[in-house]
Amino acid sequence: MSAGFDLRGLGVSLRGRPVFSDVTLSVRPGEMVGLIGPNGAGKTSLMRAALGLIPCEGESSLAGLSPAARAKTVAWMPQAREIAWPVPVERLVALGRLPYLPARGGLPEADRAHVDRALARLDLQGLRHRASSRLSGGEQARALIARALAQDTPVLMADEPIAGLDPAHQISAMRIFRDLAGEGRAVMVSLHDLGLAARHCTRLILMAGGGVMADGPPGEVLSPGRMARAFGVSVWHQETEHGPVFQPLEVVE
Ligand SMILES: Nc1ncnc2c1ncn2[C@@H]1O[C@H](COP(=O)(O)OP(=O)(O)OP(=O)(O)O)[C@@H](O)[C@H]1O
């Protein structure tokens, strides 16, 4: 598996307005990175720029890859996830194998095994023949995570992948992302749930004020002063026998 990805001096302006500038960071295999920050801080823009999907200043090791190489290097789950076509769930998940398939013919046995594993991991076997457009919002989100897993890439980037999932599926999805990192992949997910970020990420990158405000272990990044400056909230944070518990409390002036 390749070695994560690197961003150097990355900056994005949209319609002439700078969103963020001068972001330099590397994400290594084994890291489960939570990208956090208030609405509009530039989390989506950072990931899209890193992938080469929008114009930007600076360099990204992913953006320079050919489309074919990039599809085998990074699985991308965008925030918008309406599934308009009524394809069966298993076919939607099988689309994750597209970068590996010959131009003609069906799905080879080995690729089918990837699809079956992804369906099982996301608890979707019972829905595999259902039309994807007839899933609930949370089920669609799980099907799209399964598609990204089937792609079996060394890097995974996901924009708010657990938004709209129920608590059990949020926790399972975070565990899956963490396990994928544990297998040696580089994982970056944007999140608004700071409690889940604190519990499941090995590293947090906090975007605010036009750049990266903090980057490090969750316990350091989620300091009360920084949470007040970045999000305008007071917080409660405790290391417990169940792991870190982090809860935003009140809006502060
Ligand atoms: N197509 C666009 N044209 C102009 N401005 C845009 C465009 N897309 C996003 N923006 C602006 O860029 C800024 C960053 O947006 P971005 O979606 O990257 O933030 P975010 O941190 O992902 O936000 P959220 O948490 O709300 O999803 C925002 O101020 C947004 O209004």
How many distinct beta strands? 11
Bound molecules: adenosine-5'-triphosphate
Number of helices: 9
Alpha-beta classification: alpha/beta
Q: Could you tell me how far the N terminus lies from the C terminus, measured between alpha carbons in angstroms? A: 47 Å
> Which sequence of strands runs across the widest sheet?
5-6-7-3-8-9
CATH fold type of the domain at 5-82 and 154-251:
Rossmann fold
Q: What's the architecture of the domain at 5-82 and 154-251 in CATH terms?
A: 3-Layer(aba) Sandwich
Unreliable segments of 5+ consecutive residues: none
Tell me the overall shape: globular
Helix content: 25-40%
CATH class of the domain at 5-82 and 154-251: Alpha Beta
CATH superfamily grouping of the domain at 5-82 and 154-251: P-loop containing nucleotide triphosphate hydrolases
Largest sheet features: 6 strands, mixed
Beta-strand fraction estimate = 25-35%
String of helices and strands: EEEHEHEHHHEHEHEEHHEE
Task: Calculate Rg over CA atoms.
Answer: 18 Å
Q: What does the average pLDDT come to?
A: 92
Can you describe what's shown?
Keywords: ATP-binding, Nucleotide-binding, Translocase, Transport. One of its GO terms (molecular function) is ATP binding. It holds the Pfam family ABC_tran. Residues 5-234 form the ABC transporter domain. This is ABC transporter ATP-binding protein. With 253 residues, the protein is of the alpha/beta class. The chain is built from 9 helices and 11 strands. The strands form 3 sheets. It has a 6-stranded mixed sheet with strand order 5-6-7-3-8-9, with helices on both faces. It has a 3-stranded antiparallel sheet with strand order 2-1-4. It has a domain at 5-82 and 154-251: Rossmann fold. Strand 6 (155-159), helix 6 and strand 7 form a beta-alpha-beta unit. It is 33% helix and 29% strand. The radius of gyration is 18 Å and the shape is globular. The termini are far apart. The mean pLDDT is 92. The protein has helices spanning 43-50, 67-73, 89-94, 109-121, 137-151, 167-182, 194-200, 218-221, 224-231; strands spanning 5-14, 17-27, 32-36, 57-60, 74-77, 155-159, 186-190, 203-208, 211-216, 233-240, 243-251.
